[in-house]
Amino acid sequence: MKDEQYHPIGAATIAKNRLFSQFHAQYPDHERERIVKSLVQGVSIIQVLFVTVAFGIGIDIKDIRQVIHIGVPYTMEEYYQEAGRCGRDGQPSKAIVYFNSYDISKGRKHLTDTMRNYVQQKNCKRKFILNYFGHKIPERDLPEHTCCDSHQCTCDDCLLSDVAMLLVDPEDSNDATCNSSTHLEDMSVHRVLNEQEISIIRKQLEQYRLTLHGQGRSCVGGITLATGFSFELIDNVIEQAATLKSVEDVMLRLPVFSRTHAEAIFDIASQF
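== DNA 3'-5' helicase ==
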């Protein structure tokens, strides 16, 4: 992210202005104290915090919206405590676990069968957790999508989100569900790129992607993980290249977190 990791844009490139940070035993004490104090007081600018399992014990931070586990916690008790650090203000929050076959293999010591079963669970995960702790699942009048990922929700919001573009009236420019950059009228009339144009755009996007690697092979996790500029993103750009109207349009319609990336994409896509 280079300079974009500091807030606001143009701010001094020092730790307290960074949008993300880490928190572990080897991190300087004064930095850990600053991070905790700002989070508890609700004045932190940090958007992503990389932490060990010890973070949050004895600390009440109310407005954490998401807890992401890279790998599977050993026990349900550990998972329940760690996932419970988000949503303490009562607002909708998510707990997500990323894992692969090794993470749940029998060769992984100390991992309980309960957690192996939990992450592979095809039925209600909320019920699974409550049953484990000896509780019955309470009656809920909320949409199913607010429960867990095992539910195939059929509420109006979910159904509408799937077909929103088909339901927008192209004559109504004030429709609250229609942004000018994704307006059906704008999208319905555009030419199709030919194979040569697609080839040129793809090559330029791939060349731009390579420039993000920095000096040498120090890009942690590869270009995709470090910058978000994946080959899948390139495919998405090509699919929508003829309909992109502005840099803001790129940021709205494509999974791009950097305005610098969005500007580069628009410059390349808009040449035809």
